[in-house]
Design goal:
By secondary structure, the chain is mainly alpha-helical. The chain is built from 14 helices and no strands.
Length: about 350
């Protein structure tokens, strides 16, 4: 069992640092203009955006892993009652507030009416899928705790989900890169495997349980080294596979939540940050507490600023990181300000 303090109210500095890094990574992903710039595929500018997208592709997964480590660990004494009575209602209120804000802003900017508002409000802004995913994880945490109470059951869930959600689907995706005969057969097989997969669209569960498993049962030095090597290989392979795929059909799909490279990088980053000797710091603590607010706020600021980027690779790299840092800081300041509004601040961020 991990030797880090397991009292329910104690903070774990390594997790605080991880939240900050993950929040910054999400901002970089949304600032990265790969989906917006009309840039020739495989140009130097495209390669910069590809590297940025791959490098930070595991950011949201780290949030799931942290939550799993903290909420599935019985030693921390976090009660299910508190989860249902406080955390889930708070998530609901946060969604209602921010979804309404984004929906109203959209309608005012584009002159849309009440039905557009309702659609936007129910669906939520593009980044709010995270709130749905984390709420679903909170909802089934009692069930997952029954599974993770047994190390063998935990291993079985991780292994079966790994094969069904990561290996088989990515193998099918990889085969699409080749001009194979009778591709319709491959697509039918892909459809059949998707229907068979009991974990489809539930990759967040995997990261949630994986975060707990790696935290509660730290791997040996040899296994940790293997994970680090897989993480490096995952980064390189995702960059290469995106290049290969983009050269064929102008698409990029090897940085999704269920991609093997993203999984390898998430596991490597998680273990590496946990291994750091992070000392408690008020700055780290405050930024960590502001991480959800940063996640919720930064798209609003990004859409107001509408940054322009240079086509020069070096300037583009600096522009992406510079804008991400600026939005991160502004979002953090606003998040702290909102959190300090008496009585209701905690329900905004």
């Amino acid at each position: 069992m991990n030797s880090i303090s397991q009292t329910p109210n104690s903070r774990i500095p390594a997790f605080d640092l991880m939240r900050i890094i993950a929040a910054f990574g999400v901002v970089v992903l949304h600032v990265n203009p790969m989906a917006r710039l009309d840039t020739p595929v495989l140009s130097s500018t495209w390669h910069v955006m590809n590297i940025m997208g791959v490098l930070f592709s595991c950011s949201v997964q780290l949030f799931f892993m942290i939550s799993g480590a903290l909420l599935l660990s019985p030693e921390r004494g976090f009660s299910i009652e508190r989860l249902y009575r406080k955390r889930l209602p708070r998530l609901g209120i946060i969604f209602l507030f921010w979804s309404a804000l984004y929906a109203v802003t959209h309608c005012l900017l584009y002159g849309k009416g009440k039905w557009t508002f309702l659609n936007q409000f129910i669906r939520g802004h593009y980044h709010m899928w995270f709130l749905f995913a984390i709420a679903a994880l909170y909802w089934i945490t009692p069930l997952l705790r029954q599974i993770t109470a047994s190390r063998d059951s935990t291993r079985y869930l991780l292994l079966s989900c790994f094969m069904m959600s990561f290996v088989f689907p990515r193998l099918m995706e990889f085969l699409h890169l080749f001009p194979l005969p009778h591709m319709d057969v491959l697509e039918s097989l892909q459809s059949a495997m998707n229907q068979l997969n009991p974990y489809r669209s539930l990759s967040s569960i995997y990261y949630y349980v994986l975060g707990y498993s790696l935290f509660a049962f730290p791997p040996s030095h040899r296994r940790k080294t293997v994970i680090y090597l897989c993480s490096i290989f995952g980064f390189l392979s995702a960059c290469f596979l995106n290049i290969w795929q983009a050269s064929r059909d102008n698409a990029v799909s090897f940085t999704t939540n269920t991609s093997l490279p993203a999984l390898a990088m998430a596991a490597g980053a998680y273990l590496f940050i946990l291994s750091l000797d992070v000392h408690p710091s008020s700055v780290i603590t405050h930024l960590s507490r502001a991480s959800l607010g940063i996640y919720l706020l930064h798209p609003f600021l990004l859409e107001r600023f509408s940054p322009v980027f240079s086509s020069n690779p070096i300037l583009l790299s600096l522009g992406i990181l510079g804008w991400a840092l600026l939005l991160f800081i502004f979002s953090a300041v606003l998040s702290v300000f909102l959190s300090r509004i008496p009585k209701v601040g905690s329900y905004f961020v």
